[in-house]
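User: Can you fold this complex?
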Amino acid sequence: MDANFFIYKLILIAAILGLSLLVAMYATLLERKLAAFFQDRLGPNRAGKWGLLQPLADGVKLFFKEEFIPASADKFLYVLGPSLSMLVALLTSAVIPWGPSINIGGTEYALQVANVNIGVLYLFAIVSIGVYGIMIGGWASNNKYALLGAVRASSQMISYELALGLSIVALVMTSGSLNLSEIVNQQDGFKWNIFYQPLGFIIFLICAFAETNRAPFDLPECETELIGGYHTEYSSMKLGFYLFAEYINMFVSGAIIATLFLGGYDFPGIDQLGLSQNALAAAGFLVLFAKISFIIFLFMWIRWTLPRFRYDQLMKLGWKKLLPLAVLNIILTGFISLLMQ
Amino acid sequence: MDIYIFYGLSILMIFSSIMVLVSKKGIHSLLYLIFSFFTLAGHYVLLNAQFLAVVHIIVYAGAIMVLFLFSVMLLNLNVESEVPKSLYARLAAVVASGLLLVTLISALKGFDISSTKPIHLSQIGTVENLGKILYSDYLLPFEIASVLFISAMVGAVMLGRKELNF
Amino acid sequence: MKLTNRSKVVSDKNMTMKERLYLPAIATGMGITFMHLFKKSVTVEYPAQQRPFADVYRGHHVLKRDEQGRERCTACGLCALACPAEAITMTAAEREPGEEHLYREEKYAKVYEINMLRCIFCGLCEEACPKEAIFLTKRIVHAEYEREDFVYGKDKLVESADSDKRIDVSIRQTPQVLEFKKDNTKRHNK
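Assistant: Here's the predicted assembly.
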């Protein structure tokens, strides 16, 4: 393995890690600010200008809180839960193409940590193990609310994984590839998948909400019924990890939605600007970032608009509406692509 | 380098498999089992079968074990509440697992490890090849397996209904 | 019975296909929340920014002194009698020789306490006072940590004798008010 290549990958991983953490940090501020604006309030504005230092203050506060492990908790699993949540949230960003390749000293470097052939399946695998952090944490707390939250989380995630997977299947049928960078390249020139798979996009979006445990699917941490849900017993930075993982998940799922359906780093007319290759890569990255920001905004917008589902409504939507719709989508896609040939 | 990864993975796998049996708590056993699935997925990757590795994680670690964990969490598995097994049951278990061991040993005994050529085709585990083989050479077993799954699903739905009107 | 024009007749008829899709309704709701992004915030950033009070706001009481800095209160007890919440208690004492610069009349309130948790800030004490001694002011009664701390004694009620620290209550002593106080038929305290 080339040493340069190795160093480049290390730098890229560090950059993406830092970026995800930074975005997650400021997503917490954005969430609070947007919540305030949607409710005609001002939001946090004491720490720094417009509250820009608020995430730091929150982080410092969480760090200095007492580390408390309940006496009856399973110590190892209690610590494992939040770490696993965080790990899984960060793992997903490895296969996302963040921009067109850049050129350093005559060598091409892709802005992607791992260009695996089965990127879509990798994403799906990570999503499917994402529930373990919540389940283990909820069980290890040895608390009925936490356990109920964990049980809700797992059943919700299993139910919505199916529709999520099936909506991806339809997408893969049109693109004919499981490779994420190839999927992005195919959408080059405003041939975004959202125009070919509108139904798939809606299903995927709804399932993304459910998989990230965001409102209106935030039943695992439903305050009115379960206090804090799976993280009832958690304090200090372990709680911080859980909360942080949610925002990282939001960022990453924004990136996935942008990559799969909104053309990734593509923007109509960006090739005609006559930019050099590296400038094009930077512009592509900014475009992708703008799309992700929009999706994060959408996540928050929906959270402060829609009320939480009731549990049976959640299950009904997942199994009786989304799953048949996703199957229908696959059949329609197959039928239409057969006619097009 | 591959060989070290192989040994590392194998040691982890054997360790976690033993821990599945030794662990006192049901949840711990399950988590060790899930961990051993991950090491198995690592072996698949070493064999260049990325597709199989990922699907293994999706299906086993991501779906089936979550359901297992789900049900074990809700069961209150304590040492006290467990009914001690009778001597006959223990004897039967020993005989059955001993027979399985004998079968495995006899199957592996006549196997000449040097006769298998190490296959290093980078394309062997890709989705394209797997799909082509599944839908040409193994079409019939594949379809039969899917029929089996459908019948299992229908059966589960039937059993899950409130009133059974046969 | 129809109380307001906003009441709506409730019906549980089956939803139409469009309604059961929910997506149009969700879009409408999101439109409403989106419009709120551009609305002016209703927040008053309190310590930095204070809402204007009405001039006749009834808050923290004051026990006035006269021009020479003598307490006006003569411990007649009419305020305590008028108080509907029974928040005022007092102990009267006789003025000793040499205390003429402190108390205006021969009798004064040795102890004068208002329980701010009981007080309903109705202002009837002010109306009952024949000596123009007690007034309600625009000041806010602050939060305390203990219940006992809400019983305000003379230390918190009597205004400072310094002429520049006096509390202006001229807004509550307009000619109309004084006229009103003279007319016994209009009094709240009967």
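The two ends of chain B are 61 Å apart (CA to CA). The mean pLDDT of chain B is 81.
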